[in-house]
């Protein structure tokens, strides 16, 4: 492989490659009538540049490009609608490949070995590179509905549900109930990590042992079948259990609606499948060609749409399928453990948001100005809310618990950050995804790694969460974690362990 063939990501890291060579078909491209009439062999080589780590970490096709599917698309362009120029064929292939999720850049070489050249020759090749800064000057190929079948049994797929596209409305934010500032009381604690297993809300709040794998089962369960335990809306102070059905097992075929569409959401995969596709790019930029739309998926804010007075962007797009979202909770004022419990119940009661599992509770030294220790937890959810709707929903929960923003990184009764929402990456004035500081915060990463040991944080600075947690600058500030914090009686403030409420400097 030549170094000049490499493509690098924004951090300067060389992207991985998937190469397909010698794809061939009889095509009818050319400027001469006989070429249009008789056809000839066209051959394509394609190099896809992408980051394959996440797919490899979870052994999950959903996070990479299916080369079989790609090969079909390329051959369909070669043998498809006739055009005059090889350049146009190459451009069309590039557009088609770039419209696939995860693809950062593509090299395309189209060979025309039987070209009408009047001297002896070996081959004629048009070779191009296209990426998200140099977009293809062609429309991607869109196969007719039903032409390509997808799904392999390991990754069951479901048909797109039109009804699933709009998220339920948010609940009205309830009236704020400010709490007086107090040091942090906590329930049963145990020494800092390792904490052996994840805690499922369903288990914890039904009084079961909170160290089972039920959280993971729930997180892996699908939207349509039966069998998995999950939480439903809860009255204040408790998160009752409900049922989230699972996707039927076995292979399933999905009709193509557009070439950019992700393999649909599967709950059978490993926990690293936490991030699922979010932005239906066709709906995001209905009038844009697909390469633009695909870019929208990566850079959410690029396509602002003015609707009346409101400027909308991709963060306002509800996902086509429920996606997994990770929320980080923190509190260091007032009855923090109670507040966090209530917050979990409030989140579970939010329409369009389902709480799947809750991490152990971590006691952490404050990062930032001098202030009492925090209690931190991470909540794994599944949501049909758009990223910005989710932000508003968590802010409504913050508000309900008297959240005020007086000091940057200062003490607070409740803070809830959206760490990730599906696979959405983007920056706007009010929302950045993934959360820009999550990758360096042990107070987020350690609880997250406990509840989902194989989680991977997407985006710049991302990677396996457990690894990031082990190297985060504030890792020594994570003092201990409590497994039974959702159910155990909260001790009185004077019964807290040593060091509680002390200010700490990282
Ligand atoms: N992923 C995100 N999750 C939550 N808020 C975000 C996110 N991205 C941007 N924001 C914006 O950040 C603003 C400030 O949030 P907040 O007051 O919670 O910050 P903070 O807790 O003091 O600091 P930090 O963001 O470092 O946790 C919010 O009003 C929100 O609009
Ligand atoms: N340990 C800890 N430190 C913090 C936290 C937090 O949740 N935990 N939140 C902050 C602002 O969101 C600032 N500093």
General description of the model:
- There is one protein chain.
- The chain is an alpha+beta fold.
- It has 2 domains: 3-131, GTP cyclohydrolase I, C-terminal domain/NADPH-dependent 7-cyano-7-deazaguanine reductase, N-terminal domain (GTP Cyclohydrolase I, domain 2, 2-Layer Sandwich); 190-247 and 259-278 and 317-495, Alpha-Beta Plaits, CATH 3.30.70.560.
- The protein has 12 helices and 19 strands.
- The strands form 6 sheets. Strands 5, 10, 11, 12, 13, 14 and 19 form a 7-stranded antiparallel sheet that branches. It has a 4-stranded antiparallel sheet with strand order 1-2-3-4.
- The longest helix has 14 residues, at 387-400.
- Mean pLDDT is 70; it is low at 145-303, 305-309 and 493-506.
- The protein binds adenosine-5'-triphosphate and 2-amino-6-hydroxymethyl-7,8-dihydro-3H-pteridin-4-one.
- Adenosine-5'-triphosphate binds at residues 391, 405, 408-409, 415, 417-418, 430-433, 435, 437.
Give the helices and strands, then pairings:
Layout: E1 16-27, H1 33-38, E2 40-50, H2 53-58, H3 67-78, H4 86-98, E3 105-111, E4 125-131, E5 190-191, H5 201-205, H6 214-220, E6 228-231, E7 241-244, H7 281-284, H8 290-298, E8 305-307, E9 310-312, E10 323-331, H9 336-348, E11 353-358, E12 361-364, E13 374-383, H10 387-400, E14 415-421, E15 426-427, E16 432-433, H11 442-451, E17 456-457, E18 463-464, H12 465-471, E19 478-482
Antiparallel strand pairs: 1-2, 2-3, 3-4, 5-19, 6-7, 8-9, 10-13, 10-14, 11-13, 12-13, 12-19, 15-16, 17-18
Helix pairs in contact: 3-4, 11-12
This protein binds adenosine-5'-triphosphate and 2-amino-6-hydroxymethyl-7,8-dihydro-3H-pteridin-4-one (PH2).
Adenosine-5'-triphosphate binds near residues 391, 430 and 437.
Function: Catalyzes the conversion of 7,8-dihydroneopterin to 6-hydroxymethyl-7,8-dihydropterin.
GO molecular function: 2-amino-4-hydroxy-6-hydroxymethyldihydropteridine diphosphokinase activity
Pfam families: FolB (PF02152), HPPK (PF01288)
């Amino acid at each position: 492989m030549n170094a000049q063939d490499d493509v690098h990501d924004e951090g300067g890291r060389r992207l991985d490659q998937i190469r397909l060579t010698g794809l061939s078909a009889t095509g009818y491209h050319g400027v001469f009538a006989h070429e249009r009439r008789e056809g000839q062999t066209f051959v394509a080589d394609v190099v896809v540049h992408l980051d394959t780590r996440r797919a490899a970490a979870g052994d999950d096709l959903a996070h990479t490009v299916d080369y079989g599917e790609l090969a079909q698309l390329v051959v369909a362009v070669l043998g498809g609608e006739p055009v005059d120029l090889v350049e146009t064929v190459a451009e069309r292939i590039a557009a088609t490949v770039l419209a696939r999720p995860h693809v950062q850049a593509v090299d395309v070489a189209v060979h025309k070995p039987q070209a009408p050249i009047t001297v002896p020759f070996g081959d004629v090749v048009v070779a191009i590179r296209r990426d998200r800064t140099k977009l293809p000057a062609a429309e991607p190929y869109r196969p007719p509905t039903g032409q390509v079948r997808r799904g392999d049994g390991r990754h069951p797929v479901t048909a797109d549900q039109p009804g699933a596209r709009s998220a339920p409305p948010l609940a009205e934010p309830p009236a704020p109930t400010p709490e007086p500032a107090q040091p942090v009381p906590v329930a049963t604690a145990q020494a800092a990590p390792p904490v052996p297993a994840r805690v499922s809300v369903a288990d914890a709040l039904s009084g079961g042992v909170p160290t089972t794998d039920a959280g993971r089962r729930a997180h892996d369960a699908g939207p349509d079948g039966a069998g998995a335990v999950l939480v439903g809306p809860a009255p204040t102070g408790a998160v009752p259990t409900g049922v989230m059905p699972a996707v039927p097992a076995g292979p399933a075929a999905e009709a193509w609606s557009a070439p950019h569409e992700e393999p649909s959401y599967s709950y059978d995969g490993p926990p690293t499948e936490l991030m699922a596709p979010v932005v239906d790019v066709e709906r995001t930029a209905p009038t844009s060609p697909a390469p633009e739309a695909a870019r929208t998926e990566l850079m959410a804010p690029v396509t602002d749409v003015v609707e009346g007075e409101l400027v909308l962007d991709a963060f306002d797009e509800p996902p086509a399928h429920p996606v997994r979202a990770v929320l980080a909770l923190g509190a260091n004022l007032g009855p923090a453990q109670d507040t966090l419990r209530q917050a979990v119940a409030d989140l579970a009661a939010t329409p369009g948001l389902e709480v799947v599992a809750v991490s152990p509770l971590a006691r952490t030294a404050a990062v930032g100005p001098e202030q009492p220790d925090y209690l931190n937890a991470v909540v794994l959810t599944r949501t049909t809310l758009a990223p910005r709707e989710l932000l508003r929903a968590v802010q409504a929960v913050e508000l309900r618990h008297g959240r005020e923003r007086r000091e940057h990184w200062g003490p607070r009764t409740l803070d809830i950050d959206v760490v990730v929402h599906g696979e959405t990456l983007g920056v706007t004035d009010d929302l950045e995804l993934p959360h820009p500081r999550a990758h360096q915060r042990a107070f987020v990463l350690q609880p997250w790694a406990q509840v989902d040991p194989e989680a991977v944080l997407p985006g710049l600075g991302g990677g396996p969460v457990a690894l990031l947690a082990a190297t985060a600058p504030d890792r020594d500030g994570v003092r201990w974690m409590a497994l039974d914090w959702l159910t155990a009686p909260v001790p009185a403030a004077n019964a807290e362990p040593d060091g509680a409420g002390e200010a700490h400097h990282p």
